[in-house]
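Handout, section B. The chain below has 445 residues.
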Amino acid sequence: MMHATTSTVLFGLDPLWLSTVLMIVTYGVIISERLNRSIIALLGAMLMIMCGLLTQEQAVAGIDFNTIGLLVGMMIIVSITRKCGIFEYLAIWSAKLVRASPAGILAMLAVVTAVVSALLDNVTTVLLVVPVTLIITEALKVNPYPFLFSQILASNIGGTATLIGDPPNILIGGQVGLSFNDFALNLAPVVVVILAVHVVSMHLIWGRRMQASPELRARVMQFDERQAISDPRLLRLATLVLALVMGAFVMARTLGLDSGTIGIAGAALLLMLDNLGKSAEEQSAAVVKVYNEVEWITIFFFVGLFVVIAGVEHAGLLQLMADRLLAATGGDFTRTGMSVLWASAVLSAIVDNIPFVATMIPLIKSMGPAFGSADALLPLWWCLSLGACLGGNGTLIGASANLTVAGIAERNGIPFQFARYTMIAFPLMLVHVAMACVYVWWRYF
């Protein structure tokens, strides 16, 4: 890796120290939430260039467009699919499947949330499932807090299982070259067990004490899930495209396609099918509406982060950190893996797991020579993914889905306090990470 020379850096400052200070300040302001995180990430990226730590060409090369393509593609697909009402259908169907029993609904909605989060992203999943949950809990006159709490944890647990389920996995897959199959085969087995433990723990903490009168349960049983399907034609088209996209993810290596290409191709196909037969004006309005629903804040946050991380990588900070971590673990592969898993979990509960993972990826790559080859690092990627995704459940600020649910809850008059959430979620997160620890130690070390 070519490091920035002192002569090209602003005022002849040491590039290692300057890049480190810029990264710490950028992350500090992001954590403080005083300014929108996408603004801070972009400002940090521009300072890396203007201070001479990166050339403009190096900055652009540091942006992982495969990850950006996958994010944008899946956001477009979800934006169109959500219009047909399939997610509301699933929520009502699952509630009726357990005869509107509050304890049964608590369990079923956790499972539905986890499964949908594995196939879409967890923020979108909670945005779609939580409003329906509030309608069901209001009809049953039960406290909605346990349901929302459970769905936060379930969304992050389910998202851990696949390449597209959680932004940290999208980052890891895009930058390391791991496929949808790689994530599903290596992480889904332990995620299924962790989800089962989560469902049982929610029942023991809240579900077994929940009651609803027969009259209120009968009211929920009268909900017609078929009425939730507002556009049957779009449902058929979206189901077809989602099936093609998932099939392409599974066959990605055979097809020779990157995940970003598949995501954008699926988005383009669904956009075309959704707009066939419409006038030019209707098409323009429909496409603008879909593009407006893409989470551009997240996209530009990623763009800025990629450049910030490229700056500290070029300055040599990540190689230095990798060397120190290897020295601390004595170069022992198992100890390094466990350190990555637990450090990822605890730190991802304290800071947003996206910038943490963005920093850790090149750091772990730097360990390749110490352990023989890039392929030898595979267990470390699973440790990073499990730690970051599951660790995000520890506090309200650990993952984007957590803050999304808390925001919806508070707008509906349901208090979601940081301390109350953390007192229950953090111990549960530690249990889930301990299970992941046993799994990776048994399977890979």
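Note. The radius of gyration is 22 Å. Compare this with the example in section A.
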